[in-house]
Amino acid sequence: MNNSPDKNNKDADGKMLVRQESFQSFSGPLPPPEILERFNSIVPGAAERIIKMAEDQFAHRVDLEKRVIKSDVERSKWGQILGFIISIFGLTVALFVSIKGQQWASSIIGGGTLASLVGVFMYGTKSRRKERESKSRSK
User: Which residues contact 9 (CB under 8 A, 6 or more apart)?
Assistant: First the structure.
């Protein structure tokens, strides 16, 4: 490419032609007010419809986030209830086996039950800590 002025960059009178390009962008749910005004001049009421769409999208997102949080709380609650039932069952079986004179089997069942409970609590604490750290980094 040759950037030096030549006959292709001049008009019929020999004057130099200059071309200027500009680029404008925006981010977010709404365009700047100037663009909204232009939309309104082309289609009356378009700006109001665009703003309404952004409001509806925001309300939809908030509703989805509320549902996800409620679902997570329910799942966590049921996990705790079922975990408690399973652990009580495991410890009861260990106690019953111990009463029947099988201390080794009782130790294995009871120890396995307690080890799994400790593992679940440790995993839950670690995953919540990672989630909090990732949220604090994103802010």
Answer: 16, 17
